[in-house]
Amino acid sequence: MPNRYPGSSQGEYAVDYYDMLGIRRNATLDEIKSAYRQLALKYHPDRNPGDQIAESEFKKVSEAYQILSDPEKRQLYDIYGHAGLNGFDVGGFGGFEDIFSTFGDIFEDFFGFSRSRGRASRAQPGADLRHVVSLTLDEVLTGVEKDIEVERRVLCQQCEGEGMEPGTEAQICSHCGGRGQVSQSRGLLRVFTTCPVCRGTGSLIPHPCEACGGSGTTYENRHMQVRIPAGVDNGTRLRLRGEGEAGRFGGPPGDLYLDVHVEPHPFLHRRGRDLLHGAELSFVQAALGWEIEIPTLNGSAPLKIPSGTQSGDVFRLKGEGLPDLKTQKRGDLLVEVSLKTPTDLTSRQEELLQEFLKIESFEPSSN
Fold first, then answer.
1. Which residues have a Cβ under 8 Å from the Cβ of 215 and sit 6 or more positions away?
2. What's 4-111's CATH class?
3. Full strand arrangement of the beta sheet holding 256-262
4. Which of 45, 324, 348, 364 is deepest in the core (most CB within 10 A)?
5. How large a percentage of the chain has pLDDT more than 90?
């Protein structure tokens, strides 16, 4: 039998709030919300029209959730039971409008409707825009200023964004009475939705602006110079606030997002802030040691190859990579050596190699 405590707003004795929601006394807030959601859906009046028992249960589980979701009330209830809640406004909902005002945000999540009754705001934010900027590795190294052109919507100069011919006035929407919303009955609740005629503005335009067709905006080609910092990578997105399309009725403008595309380099490959380069040597150069010139983004740099170098060995040129976008510290240039075996030997070359083979101590292995 459920636990009962004296001193509740529901009478001399009341069912324990935890039992009411079917949860443990150490339940988390998420568990409390989940339990309330299931019971509220079960007993909601829209699903139980005219059922007085369901209406009563709906109010009870709402009261239980009101207490157990509040840390202070829950602590007092855990220690003193219902008596510890004296002085708090517990339960006693005058009707479903009271419940709705208390749990409106939860009902919006659970049942998919809004409790807003006021006229919808006319302010409309502008749309964000996207533009691709292509860079070379040389431009990534130093950073660069780019001239770009973006087509965007701006406020119509003729009607100043109002969408109506100058000297004319908008009319109050007769469908919603200028509120921007219309209501529908759902059981004991009234649900408000955006007016389908005026689309939430509360007014209609009898004489649309000829310049913009009533939209309040026109297109322009915006030329601007943007600074791309050194170290950006392929896929980096830069945000230019307020450079998107214009907002309407006092709404803020959108933003412009620059998506960086780094073009492939003919002989350097990127790995983070390091650069990779492949160098080809003859086996003689690798055996004896050699000095080669390595192409870099700054020109070239000498690299000494020690004797006995093997195919696949990697050498590092410090500071010849790309800068880090945040710290601007440069990475390195990594040079991977590969050995090329000659295919067209002269008779003299073959003679020398035969002599070398006779005195070579290396034994081939299949391991």
1. 156, 163
2. mainly alpha
3. 129-135, 256-262, 237-240
4. 45
5. 47
Encode pLDDT of 95-119 as tens digits: 444 444 445 445 544 444 444 444 3
The C-alpha atoms of residue 237 and residue 213 are separated, in whole angstroms, by 34
Nearest to 186 by CA among 40, 49, 41: 49
Mean pLDDT of 67-91: 77
* pLDDT digits 0-9 by tens, 283-292: 899 999 999 9
pTM: 0.58
Which one, of 355, 303, 309, lies nearest residue 334 by Cα? 303
Check the CA dihedral 32-37-42-44 and report its sign.
Answer: positive
Q: What is the residue extent of each domain of the chain?
A: 4-111, 269-359
Instruction: Indicate the DSSP class of residue 209.
Output: -
Name the average pLDDT for the chain: 83
Residue range 269-359 forms a domain whose CATH class is mainly beta
Residue 99 burial (CB count, 10 A): 21
Written as six digits, the tokens of 291 are 């000095």
